[in-house]
Amino acid sequence: MLASDKHAFRTALGRFVTGVTIVTTRDEDGKAIGLTANSFNSVSLDPPMVLWSLALGSPNIAAFRHSQAWAVHILSADQEDLSNRFATRGIDKFDGLDIQDGPEGAPLIPGCAARFGCRSAFEYEGGDHAIFVGEVLDFSDSSLQPLVFHDGRYGGV
Question: Which candidate, 33, 44, 89, 140, has a CA 20 to 30 Å from the CA of 95?
Answer without folding.
Answer: 140
